[in-house]
Amino acid sequence: MLNTFKYTVLSLTRVRSVLFWTLAFPIILGTIFFAMFSNIDSSNDFEPIPIAVINDSNYQDEAAFRQLVDTLSETGENQMLVPSFVKEETAAKELLKDQSVVGYYKIETDGKPKLYTAVGSGADFSTSINQTILKNLLDNYIHKSSTINTLMEENPLTLMDPAFTENLYEQNSYTNEISITANKASGSIRYFYSLLGFASIMAAMIGMTAIVRTQANLSALGARRAIGATARAKTLVATLVAAWLVSYICLLIGYCYLSFVLGINFGRDALSILGLGIASFMATGLGACIGTIPKLPEGTKIGILTGLTCLVSLFAGLYGEPAMELADNLARNAPIIQMLNPARLVTELFYSLYYFDGYEQFITTSLFLVAYGLVLLFIAATFMRRQRYASL
Amino acid sequence: MEIVAVENLVKRYKELLALDHFNMKIEKGEIFALLGPNGCGKTTAINCILQLLTYDKGSIRLFGEEMTPGRYDIKRRIGIVPQNIAVFEELTVRENIDYFCALYVKDKHERKKLVNEAIEFVGLEDYTKFRPRKLSGGLIRRLNIACGVVHKPELIFFDEPTVAVDPQSRNSILEGIKAFNRSGATIVYTSHYMEEVEEIGTRIMIMDHGRIIASGTNNELKAMIGNAEKIQIEIADMDNVALEQLKSLPFVQKVCYDSKTLDVTCAAGNNNLGRLLEKLQSLQLNIGRVYSDPPTLNDVFLELTGTELRD
Questions:
Q1: What is the nearest CA distance from B250 to chain A, expressed in angstroms?
Q2: Could you tell me the maximum CA-CA distance found in chain A, to the nearest angstrom?
Q3: Looking at the domain that runs over B226-294, which CATH code has it been given?
């Protein structure tokens, strides 16, 4: 039994077509996805705003404003500004004209800061937002400094009260930011979930190849092995475990490539690895089930499996936005179809790990996938356990 | 002791009767040759004996015990070299032989010894790290044989093991089979190559349409057929009168004269050649070279199975 396991693993890891479809192809597709979608997520991230600041004697006299600019320019995750200090306003205008900056701050002769931005139709959406942010920053500063100046003139003692000053500097917000998902939402992550679903179904090729080689009615090698003095059940168990292990390793390699090389965040790694084990179990069952179909040559079965993988991946949303809408519509209007779609189930498994705080969804989907795999293996077993055939 | 005893085996493929009350008994130490045209039921018979195929009727006993799919104790004593190459394309020569050995032998050290012996036996020492696709047709056949016999079985089935191999490899395979037999193994050998069967078979069974049509030793089979001897004589000129006189001889079955060559088929009997030459001299014919061929297994086979083309 151990030898059957050992040599099944060895032979499966040397079948080039199997390795291409289950290992290389998802990696290639993942790389293409990464190249296509890397800009989608970064476009949603806030980038510090480039701004010019006229560093003249007026600016040097306004210590409070200088401190504001310095604080907002400090490197780190809270950095809001990337200032370019210039001596003359003409230099600032040049930078604005070149679109090197979104605007420039200038301290006027009356000591008040002012924001200058480009006016016209040339500004794109993100520039407009950045202009608004710069304006809000300045308005807030002017409002606060005006309040403090008034208090200093009319009732300076109030500024001695720490509770009052704390309240003054506090940034009041009337909305509360909460996270409804375990991780930050990403526009492209669904493609990678679908890709994992696709890879899982492709991994069924391994189970199929392994089983065809055990069946006397499907291959000469299967017939020869069936005559051997090792019990049929031992051969089948060793073969299926070997196929599962090879599928799992292929998926793990793909996952590690996506996660560690391309930097795709799938959420919780340990549970993701467990999820891959469950997905590969289901895939082995699917492969065994297709592999045992009688009277069909192996090439035809590869064709069936490839076609099936492409079809179920469509309904799992692998092929872009329209496919995702189709998948979502099906999930809403025909949930049973999606529950029977193995690629969709694997996609859901990782989806639950990424977006859900709890484990309930993950456990439910996992159990469903395990049950799915067991049903497929049971169907396959009705063919696999046969030892004698009416014809070969 | 009967190693194989098949009685009244009937196997149908839907309407086709593949084995028609097939009987076969093989004694220990024999090289039993199963001979027949393509599609006559040789491989079907072996697959039934090995419990790969279901059958409609009959009994199969190996080593005196009833054979069933779950009799792994009996299977352990059997080796099979199938007609089609049955090895892992992705495993090396040594890995393949070790895999098949492990189907029968659990002990790792014993297996290593057996694998080395099998590699040496089939002469694949220089190819142990090769994968099958890198081997020539003859070498692959030898690998197929090594995988089938590595566990030193007592009964070995060779199902047309020399198909599509060069004469050197064929000779090597036949010598190997004889060596297995000398070491005590009982051999069941199927083929439609007459000269091979004639060379190695201690007992021969000819089957056609799922039935046994003849069985016996090489000489016993040859004695069964009517035509015993073929004589060929070069004669410069021969007229129809002389031909008619030859045809009238009691031991002559068939006469044919073409391109100065006379072909005469004689019935079984003594001194056919002497009596024929005597007659030709009496007819005052110029006799050139003379050839006399005793009957071959091919003659037996064609006479028993007919000359119509098979699949």
A1: 51
A2: 107
A3: 3.30.70.100
